[in-house]
Design brief:
The structure is a single chain. The chain is an alpha/beta fold. It has two domains: about 270 residues, no CATH class; about 170 residues, no CATH class. It has 14 helices and 22 strands. A hairpin with an 8-residue loop joins strand 17 and strand 18. Helix 3 runs parallel beside helix 4. It starts with a helix and ends in a 7-residue tail after the last strand. The protein binds zinc ion (ZN). The site of zinc ion has 3 residues, from loops.
Length: about 525
């Protein structure tokens, strides 16, 4: 072999080995996964609107901190290369402004474009967002993500069971799942399942599941009737996991849907994904039929009554604390959070006018101007100021709070500042911005002792676990607001009819499975 031949041979060898290592790299390379999504639940029956600032937006690496199963040493983190783009969530509220949606979407899509191409997208949404002038925002969102990432990419959609699944969302989702518990104690576990299913399909090379069955179930019920702690939702949702264990079935999910948005897509849905057509169809139809069959058994998860009756029961009860859910304005379901109607009834009630009356804590009411005055007056100071009804004043105007400042919990930027004002035997928590009170520490941080209070009134529906465990007794008050629990009082115009329970005696619907085209098919 002369020098020239040697040179040619080594060039061939080198390029061969380069070729080999390229090949090896391709097969051992971890899948490239993007993370994106916007999550909010919006009542269109509330005058409130949600802006971009209402979203806690995480971009890039910051997104990892939101998912405990994606911390640096986690198994899921090792299995892929992640490109977190933009993930935002807001506490439920009014409809999202078009400007806010467009701004956040433009940022999300721009960030997604920076790290193309992807093998998968972990699409983490709620499913009950409303946007001014846009039906089916999540369907729009996923279509725009799809347009950026391309048809071959697997999108795994993770949702709240109170979300809505339109045909469009089902079409563009390759994998889709939602929580199986309400209250959502399995939120993290469900998000993890959505991601792990995606990783499994990418690693095995199986790709998009061959079949997606979708069944709309014409039922619209409030979350306060569909807690999985009690029947019939408990047994209904208990069917989901065994179904996913069948061969040929990848995942199954039941969405209760969201009752406080007047949009054509709002209703319950069942979906099952997998590779065995018959099994997928049968499973979806079983779940849909089971849901329909128990529709008349859904009742409020706790006793309900008008507010005046709730107050009488609480005043005469010896169980501490007697918790009253002020349901109609529940900010965690989409209420404006500043309706004053309930607090006004309480302050006008004779039982609470003297300081030795039954102790009552009211959580809570936004009152930014009152906060400023309370800081000025200082601890122990006297105050006289209005709070509430800046957004939702349909049922009552701002309420005058004239009392003693008992606590001031000031945040660095003052945006989260809370104060306690005492009038008679009532202590009212006033906040700068609306805020849900879900933890005992939310109260104790303000020097309040909710366990030993006679009555605690919270703007909430069914109790979150910590409040539930704390309760001496509990009743849910049918109060007015943007998330009125009496659906018959809501002025629906655009949802699909007939719908149970609005059309109580409707005929049995068609509950056969519709197969949704794969995302790379029309
Ligand atoms: Zn939910």
């Amino acid at each position: 072999m002369n020098f020239k031949q040697l040179l040619i041979a080594s060039v061939i060898l080198i390029s061969l080995s380069a070729c080999q290592s390229q090949q090896e790299k391709r097969t051992t390379e971890k899948p490239r996964i993007a993370i994106a999504g916007l999550a909010i639940e919006c009542s269109t029956f509330s005058p409130a609107q949600s802006n971009a600032e209402d979203f806690r937006v995480r971009r890039g690496e910051e997104i990892f901190s939101y998912y405990p199963f994606l911390h640096e040493d986690s198994a899921a983190r090792q299995r892929a290369q992640y490109f977190p783009a933009l993930r935002g969530h807001a506490i439920p509220g009014g409809i999202v402004t078009r400007a806010a949606y467009d701004t956040l979407m433009a940022q999300m899509l721009q960030l997604l474009k920076e790290n193309l191409p992807y093998d998968g997208v972990f699409f983490d949404i709620h499913g009950a967002m409303s946007v001014v002038g846009l039906d089916d925002p999540e369907g729009d969102m996923i279509q725009r993500v799809r347009d950026v990432v391309g048809k071959d990419v697997l999108i795994s959609t993770s949702m709240d069971l109170h979300g809505n699944v339109s045909w469009q969302l089902a079409h563009q989702s390759d994998l889709i799942t939602c929580y199986r518990l309400a209250p959502h104690e399995d939120a993290i576990e469900s998000k993890k399942r959505a991601l792990v299913n995606l990783l499994d399909r990418l690693e095995s090379g199986k790709g998009k599941p061959a079949y997606k069955a979708w069944i709309p179930v014409p039922i619209l019920l409030p979350g306060e009737k569909t807690s999985t702690r009690i029947e019939p939702a408990k047994s209904l949702y208990a069917q989901v996991d065994p179904i996913t264990k069948q061969p040929g079935v990848l995942d199954a999910a039941i969405w209760v849907g969201y009752a406080w948005a007047d949009e054509p897509r709002n209703r319950a849905v069942v979906m099952v994904t997998g590779d065995d057509k018959q099994q997928v169809k049968r499973s979806a139809e079983t779940l849909a039929r089971s849901f329909w069959d128990v529709r008349k058994q859904f009742e409020f998860v706790a006793p309900v009554a008008p507010l005046d009756e709730c107050l009488e029961m609480a005043i005469h009860s010896s169980k501490k604390p007697f918790i009253i859910s002020d349901m109609g304005d529940n900010p965690t379901a989409g209420g404006a959070g500043d309706v004053t109607w309930t607090l006004k009834q309480i302050l006008e009630h004779d039982a609470f006018k003297k300081s030795d009356g039954p102790s009552l804590i009211y959580a809570s009411l936004p009152g930014p101007q009152l906060i400023d005055k309370a800081i000025e007056a200082g601890l122990g100071g006297k105050i006289e100021a209005f709070a509430g009804a800046e957004i939702d004043n349909r049922y009552a105007g701002p309420v005058m709070l004239k009392g003693i400042v008992e606590a001031i919990c000031q945040s660095d930027d003052n945006a989260q500042t809370e104060v306690v004002v005492r009038m008679g035997s009532v202590r009212v928590i006033v906040t700068k911005k609306r805020k849900p009170y879900h933890y005992e520490s939310d109260f104790t941080n303000l020097g309040l002792d909710p366990r030993n209070a006679d009555i605690v009134v919270v703007k909430i529906g069914y109790l979150v676990p910590e409040l539930y465990d704390m309760r001496g007794d509990w009743i849910m008050a049918l109060t007015p607001g943007g998330v009125d629990q009496d659906l018959h009082r809501l002025p629906y115009q655009r949802i699909d009819r007939p719908m149970y329970p609005l059309d109580e005696d409707m005929a049995d619907p068609d509950l056969t499975a519709r197969f949704v085209p794969l995302s790379d098919e029309e």
